[in-house]
Amino acid sequence: MDRAVAAARSAFEDGRWSRIAPAARKRVLHRLADLIEKHALELAVLGVRDNGTELNMALKAEPGSAAGTFRYYAEAIDKIYGEIAPTAPGTLGLVHKEPVGVVGAIVPWNFPLMIGAWKLAPALAAGNSVVLKPAETASLSLLKLAELAAEAGVPEGVLNVVTGSGAVAGEALAMSMDVDVLVFTGSGPVGRRLLEYSARSNLKRVYLELGGKSPNIVFADAPDLEEAAMVSAGGIFRNSGQVCVAGSRLLVEESIHDTFVERVAHHARQLKVGDPLDLTTNVGAVNSLRQLEGNLGFIDSARSEGNTIALGGNRILEETGGYYMEPTIVTDVGPQDRIARNEVFGPVLSVQTFETDAEALALANGTDYGLAAGVWTSNLSRAHNMVAGIRSGVVHVNTYGGADATVPLGGMKQSGNGHDKSLHAMDKYLDLKTAWIKL
Fold first, then answer.
1. For residue range 216-230, what is the model confidence (pLDDT) as tens digits?
2. What pLDDT digit, counting tens, does each position of 332-342 carry?
3. What range defines the domain where residue 386 resides?
4. Which end of the chain is more exposed for a tag (fewer CB within 10 A), N or C?
5. What are the catalytic residues (predicted)?
6. Is the residue at 406 inside a domain?
7. Is residue 22 located within the same domain as residue 122?
8. Same domain assignment for residues 180 and 279
């Protein structure tokens, strides 16, 4: 890791990437996007073999998304300008935007290529050098991406991918005195540790996208309750619930609770759980035995707190010996119950009821997290009031998931700080420098 950081620093300082014309960087990133698309199936299969995401989803969410992300920031490179300040006569105030230097990036195992691209593309577009550490259990697709980047023309030392454990490689990256900015997607406890490492080293800026316990609020006047049930099931059970913005808390109006929960359960029963490389599979594997045991531990605590396991709750034993879990719905959940407040990161949906808009809003905001949310209603005023009142970085209305690169993704409260995606992501990777000139 120390050698990789040194290589990144050397590459940044000599300007082989940081000081070339923006249009030249654009051409390289477009070539990289072309190569990602050319190798899409290989990249998707490498990721699936690591993390168990169902292949049909992986193709779109990993290489498909990554190629689009690199194209988006390639096109942004030469459209971000400095500023001329409105100064008094006799002076000229200029605001320059410059690359920060060396960026350290630590990404998770659930969508390594997609989330890796969210970090790499804007950082490289801005002219920085990057050292990226994948998760221990999902590095293959990012190692392949580094090969493709070299083939596309990213100069030596500009992009470095270093595998290893968080406790060794991750700590070395976060403690480095030569990393200017650290970006991370993952758990809250690790995010806290990275902030400590920043304080103990060079006070590098740290941007965190952490966990979520996202509410999905369904009112009785939803425009299409059948669609809401189907999308709600997909919003928690796809990729075995291993999605940071997963709608893991279903908040449903009391008057439709029984029928709506049964509709969600109906759609969940139709999902085929199994081998993620089988094209007929809808829900793939849980990432690891540790994650599976954690998921099942939440089910045990739900039973002990008097919650009802309305669907699933068990491990599925496959001939492969892999880690598979039934889509699970837990009802009779109170706002203080463990399963209502803590992120499971598995195919587990908790259900709570409400009677008024104010009660729905209180339940939605009743956790430490604030990453995403959903609202289903035909009432335009209610929709706007819920968007305004929910403390989360993303609020979906009459849909769940699927936002593209044009809009930011970031958290509120303990779901983190800073933003991935959109032009706002560039802010993390650019420094502002004022030139104050007497004329």
1. 999 999 999 999 999
2. 999 999 999 99
3. 215-397
4. C
5. 209
6. no
7. yes
8. no
Which CATH number is 282's domain given? 3.40.309.10
Measured between alpha carbons, how far is 430 from 173 in angstroms, rounded to an integer? 20
Residue 410 lies in a domain: no
Annotate 149-208 with DSSP letters as a single string.
HHHHTPPTTTEEE----IIIIIHHHHH-TT--EEEEES-HHHHHHHHHHHHHTT--EEEE
Q: What local confidence, expressed as pLDDT, does residue 399 receive? A: 97
Q: What is the torsion angle, in degrees rounded to the nearest 10, for the CA atoms of residue 248, residue 253, residue 254 and residue 257?
A: -60
The reply to whether 253 belongs to the active site is no
Q: Tokens at residue 75, please? A: 């096109």
Q: Are residues 270 and 370 in the same domain?
A: yes
Q: Distance of CA 103 to CAs 12, 72, 173, 188, Å?
A: 10, 20, 10, 20
Q: Give the Å distances, CA to CA, from 19 to 12, 160, 231, 426.
A: 8, 19, 46, 17
**Residue 404 lies inside a defined structural domain of this protein:** no
pLDDT > 80? residue 326: yes
Q: Is there a single domain that holds both residue 386 and residue 257?
A: yes
Same domain, 34 and 173: yes
- Residue 7 structure tokens: 């290589």
- Signed CA dihedral, 273, 371, 298, 191: sign only: positive
pLDDT tens readout for residues 382-401: 999 999 999 999 999 999 98
Active-site residue (options: 54, 209, 253, 343):
209
Q: How confident is the model at residue 402 (pLDDT cuts 50, 70, 90)?
A: confident
**206 bridge partner residues:** 182
Residues 226 and 186 in one domain: no
Q: Does one domain contain both 323 and 377?
A: yes
Q: Are 291 and 51 in contact (CB under 8 A)?
A: no
Helix, strand or coil, per DSSP, at residue 1 = coil
The pLDDT score that the predictor gives to residue 352 is: 98
List CB contacts of 5: < 8 A, sequence separation 6 or more: 102, 104, 131, 160, 173, 176, 178, 179
Length of the chain: 439
235 confidence band (pLDDT: 50, 70, 90): very high
Domain count, the chain: 2
Same domain, 138 and 285: no
